Task: inverse folding
């Protein structure tokens, strides 16, 4: 038997073909799927988007409503400017209450008061009340909470140990901001012109209140309130935190870009005889920023965030030259393309800047810190609008007024350059 077995030819066992490796699926939006896989994130995001849409509606609705009823754009502009100034003053205080007592307990009554202000404005305009009542009513809307900041605070709490996920979430939030600023004015104009002048304000107020109520109902994703003890010293204002004031100054300059670009673009379109296309051109700028924000969220952040912020502001300053050059050609198509490209540096700059605000602000003051950033933006928008209006009236025709947003972008870059070495990190635990 042994000899028989030994005499058998030795054959190798059959070689089975190696299993084919499955190609890894190309999933470009996997980072976004990952953050929205957390229970409760889709619900609070949908509610927050509903509450955030009116931020692009209410001011233009007020302008159209007041100007249509009183026949004065000067009065309409003065009323909205008063509301903007009141928001800049009241916004940080509302955010401080949110940090101290929680989002649901603070946001709902603050929104109810703001909604009453909008309804009061509507009634005062409709029944031809004295002009001072318009100012008082619109100033009452200043208690509107920073809904975008509250949403970012939830992401920061959920992904407090995951910087890459926070980057993706912040990118989505910035894209959502741009989407609201793109759709809000269009919806407001449609409502005020197709239905009746008060329709934009009424719908905007209803959306704001409904969205905040739905958002506040999502309690499981709400960040906990920081415990306060007797031996714990009171938190100092975020304005005194290292590196934050200089960052807010950059946000102020960035807001000036937005404000001046809006006024100059509308005036340039009017001068070219295409007044109705001005809003579409601005929508293209917001669309470019929205697309860039979503793409930026797919990238894994590398390097120091301070250096990334410097690179983003440099790109923003460089791309802002394109509308200035395109306006000189006299071609609306060229200008529209330039605005689309110029918007692509906006969202990455804002995403990185908001990330720096979060890293330099204690968790218990996060809403206040981000609201200060929004306040700086609003102040810059107001200053930019005034500067852009002056440039339109006093500079030579042909698009020279586009030098105002270019100057604001250069100033933002200069501030970032001067302060980036002074505060290279300045993180707050």
Result:
């Amino acid at each position: 038997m042994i000899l028989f077995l030994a005499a058998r030819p030795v054959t190798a066992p059959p070689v089975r073909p190696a299993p084919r490796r499955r190609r890894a699926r190309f999933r470009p939006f996997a980072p976004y799927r990952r953050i929205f896989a957390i229970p409760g994130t889709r619900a609070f995001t949908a509610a927050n988007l509903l509450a955030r849409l009116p931020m692009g509606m209410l001011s233009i609705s007020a302008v159209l409503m007041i100007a249509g009823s009183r026949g004065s754009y000067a009065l309409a502009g003065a009323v909205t400017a008063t509301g903007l100034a009141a928001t800049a003053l009241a916004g940080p205080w509302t955010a401080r209450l949110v940090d101290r007592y929680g989002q649901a307990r603070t946001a709902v009554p603050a929104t109810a008061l703001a909604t009453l202000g909008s309804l009061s404005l509507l009634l005062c305009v409709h029944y031809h009340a004295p002009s001072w009542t318009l100012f008082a009513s619109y100033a009452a809307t200043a208690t509107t909470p920073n809904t975008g900041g509250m949403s970012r605070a939830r992401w920061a709490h959920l992904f407090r140990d995951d910087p890459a996920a926070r980057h993706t979430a912040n990118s989505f939030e910035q894209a959502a901001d741009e989407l609201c600023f793109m759709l809000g004015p269009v919806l407001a104009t449609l409502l005020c012109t197709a239905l009746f002048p008060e329709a934009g304000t009424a719908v905007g107020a209803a959306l704001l209140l409904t969205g905040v109520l739905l958002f506040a109902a999502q309690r499981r994703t709400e960040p906990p309130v920081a415990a306060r003890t007797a031996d714990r010293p009171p938190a100092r204002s975020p304005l005194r935190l290292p590196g934050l004031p200089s960052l807010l100054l950059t946000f102020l300059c960035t807001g000036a870009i937005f404000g001046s670009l809006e006024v100059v673009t509308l005036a340039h379109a009017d001068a070219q005889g295409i007044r109705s296309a001005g809003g579409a051109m601005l929508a293209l700028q917001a669309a470019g920023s929205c697309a860039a924000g979503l793409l930026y969220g797919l990238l894994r952040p590398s390097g120091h965030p301070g250096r990334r912020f410097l690179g983003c502001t440099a790109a923003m300053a460089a791309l802002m030259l394109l509308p200035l050059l395109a306006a000189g050609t006299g071609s609306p198509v060229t200008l529209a393309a330039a605005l689309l490209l110029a918007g692509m540096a906006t969202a990455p700059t804002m995403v990185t800047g908001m990330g720096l605000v979060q890293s330099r602000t204690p968790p218990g003051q996060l809403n206040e810190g981000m609201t200060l950033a929004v306040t700086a933006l609003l102040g810059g928008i107001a200053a930019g609008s005034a500067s852009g209006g002056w440039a339109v009236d006093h500079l030579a025709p042909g698009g020279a007024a586009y030098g105002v947003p270019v100057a604001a972008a250069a100033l933002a870059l200069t501030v970032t350059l001067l302060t980036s070495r002074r505060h290279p990190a300045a993180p707050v635990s």
The domain at 238-429 is CATH 1.20.1250.20 (Growth Hormone; Chain: A;). The chain has 18 helices and no strands.
